[in-house]
Amino acid sequence: MLGSCTDLHIFDAGSVNGTRYCNEILLPHVRLFRGTMGLQFLFMDDSAPCHRTVAAKQLLESEDIERMDWPARYPDLNPIEHVWDFLGRRLAARTLPPITIRELRLALQDEWAAMPQQLIDTLILSMGRRCETCLSVRGDHIPY
């Protein structure tokens, strides 16, 4: 979020379904943010199957959490996609890349903690411009 970020949540082994998404993300994190931010809170996720389950939809509605509407095609509009790219490039640039799951987990946490807040803020603040550009090209590729 603008001005700060949470700790990185890494799911333990296994698939992330709607129930797990509700229990590990929505209830402990998103609900708290909604309580802190109040009515100005707008939740942004994507179209991952676990995000679009009936359980997730019902939980968001029961907590009065408004979900951001996304167009059918939204190339690279979600800031988190750029954050994942940044983390991937940082991991690839390491002298000793992680080999085990434990090393990967630690490396991701280190890189997440070292990520400049300015990067996150810039991505969030550019949302309006990127959405306008997407609309102007009717969902086609956005030239960079």
From TrEMBL:
InterPro entries: RNaseH_sf (IPR036397), Tc1-like_DDE_dom (IPR038717). Gene3D superfamilies: Ribonuclease H-like superfamily/Ribonuclease H. One of its GO terms (molecular function) is nucleic acid binding. It holds the Pfam family DDE_3. Residues 41-94 form the Tc1-like transposase DDE domain. This is Transposable element Tcb2 transposase.
